[in-house]
Amino acid sequence: MSSMISRNFFLFLSQNKFAKKKAMKWGPKLGAKQVIAGETIQEAMETVKKLNEYGLVCTVDHLGEFVYSREEATASANHCIKALEAMEGAGVDCNLSLKLTSLGLDVDRNLCRDNMVRILETAKKYNNFVRIDMEDYTHLEATLELLHELRQSYDNVGTAIQAYLYRSESDVRRLKGVNLRLIKGAYKESPEVAMQKQAEVDRNYLNMIKVHLLNGSYAAIATHDHRVIAEIKAFTIENGIPKDQFEFQMLYGFRTEMQKEIAREGYKMRIYVPFGEDWYGYYMRRLAERPQNVRFAIKGLLSK
């Protein structure tokens, strides 16, 4: 199976309701337990504590997206608030990641904004930070508009920008001063809006990172690519960019030894720790990102 066919296959599965229904019955057999920190916030906090012991900081994400009712959106916001309260109670070094669709962006924009305000107020009380994950292209403009509105009152909120979109460099320049997670991108997008060749995405990704850093802005560099990490280390040294202006980020369960090595070198290394029952879409997108990730599914199946 070629990498492009593999990617398209898993992206298709990530949105297929029949496949999701079947997969949820199999659960850990798909290998998801290796990259999902349990179903409850308590389980997530135990994972975060262990990661903190290795010098790794974290961000947790209660999995779930594309809710279609006010009740679901409110419940999701409440989960986020409980997660922030749990972090404070556990005394862990961790912040929060979330998706606006899970807070009702597709239901009622004002509802989504009000849910974000409740979450940001809680985070502000605990001196914590909230990251808005970037979703597919259809939600991009609404996400950036809401981010702009929220930042009029809150400075403890940022978002993510995806390198495979043609517009991303201009978005990064417009978002000077905003704490951005810079990523390559994990959705299937049209050639009209997104680069389709990996080499192009890679070049744009490195360019975005350098533009943001040279603008004096904080960059969360989310990658498992050791070549990108090595280049950014060299670039920051050459340009006198301090280590407290950026961090590296990786996903929970991937390249764990490299995570620890980066932390030992004195860089901030943040682990993206997802938890919750609605793990399916997240896991399928991780398999789509890199064909090598399929080994997690195979390993999970063979271990049963």
TrEMBL record:
It catalyses: L-proline + a quinone = (S)-1-pyrroline-5-carboxylate + a quinol + H(+). Its cofactor is FAD. Coiled coil: none annotated. Pathway: Amino-acid degradation; L-proline degradation into L-glutamate; L-glutamate from L-proline: step 1/2. GO terms for biological process: L-proline catabolic process to L-glutamate. One of its GO terms (molecular function) is nucleotide binding. Pfam families: Pro_dh (PF01619). Substrate binds at residues 99, 285-286. It comes from Evansella caseinilytica. Keywords: FAD, Flavoprotein, Nucleotide-binding, Oxidoreductase, Proline metabolism. The keyword Oxidoreductase applies. FAD binds at residues 134, 162, 184-186, 223-224. InterPro entries: FAD-linked_oxidoreductase-like, PRODH_bac_arc, Proline_DH_dom, Proline_oxidase. Residues 44-296 form the Proline dehydrogenase domain. Binds 1 FAD per subunit. This is proline dehydrogenase. The keyword Oxidoreductase applies. Its EC number is 1.5.5.2.
